Amino acid sequence: MSTSPPQRLRDWIAAPAYPWITGGAVTAGAVVELIVIPGGVTTTVGVLVSAVSLMWRRSFPPVAVLTVAAGLIGFAGDVNLYLAIMVSGLTGCYSLGRNRVLHPALTVTGGALGALCVNLVHINTWSRMDLPVPALWERGSLSLFAESFLVTVVVFGAVMMGDAVRSREETRTERSLAQAQLIAMERQQAAEAERAAIARELHDIVSHSVSMIAVQAESATYTTPGLTPEARDGFQQIAATARSSMAELRRLLGVLRTPQGESALTSPQPTLDLLAELVDQHRAVGGTAELRITGERVALPAAWELSAYRIAQEALTNARKHAPGARTVVEVDYGADRLLTLRVQDDGPGTDSRPGAGAGHGLTGMRERAALVGGRLSAGAGPDGGFLVEAELPWGSG
């Protein structure tokens, strides 16, 4: 695909050889001009130094100060203004503004002072050449400084042009960076949405079937008459394998739901032994909570321990959010029938402070945690007012 002429010109200007080619061309032109119109030593040195230094204006931008200074010195050494000085001086001022070697105000001020000095040298030269030069205090003497005014305007224009190009390129770079960040953010959000969709699909397709396998295999040992011990053990193994698969599925869902940029949980997960610490944390942030435990503490499988802990954690968080200052009671019952019952109740305003209590993400997550281990969860107004979250999590095999 061919590029447009403006783009080819921009590419050529951006090439590393560009300053060397243009600087060499200006130098060659300066040599020719000095041969045609010879100047004094000061003028010759100033013209050549100003032209030659252009070759390093990109690799070492501060050299543009030498370019402009040498050009002014060369102009001061002769009343004639060489074309090479005009080109190199304008290019040097542009380079100073383009690369922000100095603040543009300082660059223009320095150029104006240099132009004034050159003008004063020329005024002195005109006087020695017996030209009609009015005294500085006489009428019409201000016209003597038209030269410095014109040079200052040219310096100002060149510096401002360079600074404008620099600002435009910085703006283009910032815009490109912002667009790249926006595209990356959109891709990240799309990836997270896809991860969440995969998690939902896995849950909808697999979790119900696997949990039914576990329940049916567990119940078959009690409802099927005449089972041999081997068959009973086989059903128990099927139930245990299904529960293990549910635990693994839950870990997979946790990885898929982990937002990008966060590490998946690989450290030991919290258990019910940390409930007291969780309640203390609730108190530490201004809540009022009490922990009640009934029954003998039983070490449950990791998936059950984690689900119960997370349900209690989310319920306490909801209490702080929707019923600040309310008294909360966390009850854990290790039932003899292998049923763990967890209740979290507060005496706040109840469901009135929980808009959409049946469809909130927190309650949905708690229900999913309970369902993944074959349990159930209910949430709503408590029998004595307030809000009650109750989870029943069956565990183990008989």
Q: Into which percent range does the helicity of residues fall?
A: 55-70%
- Gyration radius (Cα, Å) is 42 Å
Give helix and strand order, one letter per element, not per position: HHHHHHHHHEHEEHEE
Strand order of the largest sheet: 1-2-3-5-4
Low-confidence stretches: 355-359
What would you call the structural class?
Answer: alpha+beta
Number of strands: 5
Q: Give the averaged pLDDT, no decimals.
A: 82
Largest sheet: 5 strands, mixed
Q: What sort of overall outline do the alpha carbons produce when their principal axes are compared?
A: elongated
How far apart, in Å, are the first and last alpha carbons?
75 Å
Classify the beta-strand content into a percent band: 5-15%
Count of alpha/pi helices: 11
In summary, what is this structure?
The chain is of the alpha+beta class and 398 residues long. The chain is built from eleven helices and five strands, in the order H-H-H-H-H-H-H-H-H-E-H-E-E-H-E-E.
Tell me what the structure shows:
This protein is α+β, with helices and mostly antiparallel strands and 398 residues long. 62% of the residues lie in helices and 9% in strands. The chain contains eleven helices and five strands; from the N terminus they run αααααααααβαββαββ. A five-stranded mixed β-sheet has the order 1-2-3-5-4. Strand 2 and strand 3 form a beta hairpin. The longest helix has 78 residues. The chain is elongated and about 135 Å long. About 1% of the residues have low confidence.
